[in-house]
Specification:
By secondary structure, the protein is an all-alpha fold. It has helices spanning about 25-35, 45-50, 65-70, 80-105, 110-135, 135-155, 160-165, 170-200, 205-230, 260, 265-295, 315-350, 350-375, 375-405, 410-420, 420-440, 450-470, 485-490, 500-505, 515-540. The chain folds into two domains: about 25-240, Growth Hormone, Chain: A; about 245-480, Up-down Bundle (Growth Hormone, Chain: A), CATH 1.20.1250.20. The relative contact order is 0.15.
């Protein structure tokens, strides 16, 4: 006796004949644009640092311990304490993606997307309660831990599905989805600013209300995205496309490796190093973008001269505004790089694309100190915009690189485990940047030159990453699953073949083009607003 599969079961998500694959990228974007707000969460730090003092921070006693700081309602949190929420985001993202990646392959993207929505939106709601009650531990637990789990599941939920829908354009497909994660802050940060201005008053800074409203919006968007997911039947391929003959592309396999075996191959750990070093260098720039521009150029950003410390208060405020625009501009190029470089990788290969990242990156990082010392603001900004395209491109290209080497059967699970490199880089990059800067200042190096050594060290990171990429070779043939093992894995994953689908009475009903247009419009309009806001704010950098 057969039973009807549940609404979230993978069997309910198998696409009917005639389904339009171009509905999947906007479904993925609906989730990634929401969880990408993790990058923009720092917009809340300064208002939260005066949540009790309102006009200015009410400083806690110097002898207050950590436990008291986590539960105090009598003084304000410091920005450094709030920043641990950001650290928790990316540590939990990598660890949850690694832990639940294999489950996702079996459960399917819809169930993973729904769980992600509940964790991310629920974590934000719990964090909002922590802000309202002024309980820092609750903010960490809600937004940081529970929200971080939602980030991990949401981030990897579309990867395997997109690669299977677009075997002819793997890089472009994953680039379109992962582009949304880079764009989430560009959309969410200005929205949060508008909401905080609306809710702020004489006795409140408007943060908890803002987070709660955004949690509700994110829940709706992510659930719509999750229920928009469909998986192709086993053996599906685009009309008119023929897979390359086995052996014609040395770095692209037609077979499949089990996630547990992939974890033990040198190729996995070489790609772990490739991603970690590329991200460490890029995330170091992201973390120091605003202060770096201010300290390197100071009054020159206003058309004058003088170090940042020598400027008047109103001039420093203007410089800070310009630096914030620089950070927003980097976010825009982060997004553009994800779709651009991932699409380029479909033509020059993943290994070749990473060679470009590393070799060009080394040149750009090594050139940045000279651009800063010469006072050429536009050149300095341009160098880092290009660097950020490769930072984003690294994220978007790695899923296709994994699919090329290990096959598509467990690519989501393998990608999840590889994202632990991101968690490690999220600690390594900022720590290296911050500590070297501090040591340079303590040694008497002017603030305008305190980043030079850091940039040379980041170039060194890229050199090591280039060597890791150089060593990547195709996986040995004896490591792949046999036909029998592959059949068992597909049965465990509740996959349905095209033949089984037709035998069950599946009919061909082409998706109306209007649905595709509406889906893309729904995700494009908010993203376009974020891009426009960023560009308008960044224009003073090029005057």
């Amino acid at each position: 006796m057969s039973t009807m599969p549940g609404l979230l079961d993978k069997a309910r998500t198998v696409a009917a004949p005639g389904f339009n694959r171009w509905l999947i990228p906007p479904a993925a974007l609906a989730i990634h644009l929401c969880i990408g707000m993790a990058y923009g969460f720092s917009v809340f730090w300064l208002p939260l640092s005066r949540a009790i003092g309102i006009d200015k921070p009410l400083t806690c006693p110097a002898d207050m311990g950590l436990l008291q700081m986590l539960t105090t309602t009598s003084c304000d949190w410091t920005v450094s304490m709030l920043g641990w929420t950001y650290t928790l985001f990316f540590v939990l993202l990598g660890s949850s993606a690694a832990l639940f990646g294999h489950w996702l392959e079996t459960a399917g993207p819809r169930k993973a997307g729904v769980v992600s929505a509940l964790c991310w939106a629920g974590g934000l709601a719990l964090g909002a309660l922590g802000v309202a009650q002024h309980q820092l531990w609750l903010l960490w637990l809600g937004a940081g831990v529970l929200g971080g789990i939602g980030l991990g599941l949401g981030y990897i939920s579309p990867v395997s599905t997109l690669i299977k829908w677009f075997p002819d354009r793997r890089g472009m497909a994953t680039g379109m989805a992962i582009m949304g994660f880079g764009g989430g802050a560009m959309l969410g940060a200005p929205l949060a600013d508008l909401l905080m201005r609306h809710f702020a008053g004489p006795t409140q800074v408007g943060v908890w209300q803002t987070i709660l409203v955004m949690a509700g919006l994110y829940l709706i968007s992510m659930l719509l995205g999750a229920f928009g997911y469909r998986v192709p039947p086993t053996g599906w391929k685009p009309a008119g496309w023929t897979a390359p003959a086995a052996g014609t592309q040395a770095m692209v396999t037609s077979r499949h490796l089990h996630v547990d075996k992939a974890f033990s191959t040198p190729q996995f750990w070489l790609l772990w190093g490739v991603l970690c070093l590329n991200v460490s260098a890029g995330i170091g720039v992201v973390g120091m973008a605003s202060p770096m521009l201010q300290e390197v150029f100071g009054g020159r950003l206003l058309g004058g001269s003088g170090a940042l410390a020598q400027l008047a208060a109103d001039e420093r405020a203007q410089v800070s505004t310009i630096a914030a625009a620089f950070a927003g501009l980097l976010s825009l190029f982060n997004i553009l790089g994800r779709i651009f470089w991932a699409s380029v990788s479909d033509f020059i290969g993943r290994k070749g694309t990473y060679f470009v990242f590393f070799l060009l990156g080394i040149v750009l990082y090594a050139s940045a100190p000279s651009a800063g010392e010469s006072g050429r603001v536009a050149l300095f900004v341009g160098l880092f915009c290009i660097i950020l395209t490769m930072y984003g491109g690294g994220f978007a290209t790695i899923p296709a690189y994994l699919a090329d080497l290990f096959g598509t059967q467990h690519v989501g699970a393998i990608h999840g485990r590889l994202l632990t490199a991101w968690s490690f880089a999220g600690i390594l990059g900022p720590v290296v940047v911050n500590y070297i800067r501090e040591s340079q200042l303590q040694a008497g190096v002017p603030a305008s030159q305190a980043y030079n050594t850091t940039l040379y060290i980041l170039a060194g990171f890229l050199l090591i990453g280039c060597l890791c990429n150089l060593l990547v070779r195709p996986v040995r043939a004896d490591r792949f699953m046999s036909d029998e093992e592959l059949a068992r894995e597909r049965a465990l994953a509740h996959e349905v073949s095209q033949r089984e689908q037709l035998q069950a009475g599946g009919t061909s009903a082409p998706t109306p083009v209007l649905w595709v247009v509406l889906a893309w419009t729904a995700v494009s309009l908010p993203l376009a607003w974020g891009v426009w806001t960023t560009v308008v704010k960044a224009l003073p950098l090029f005057r």
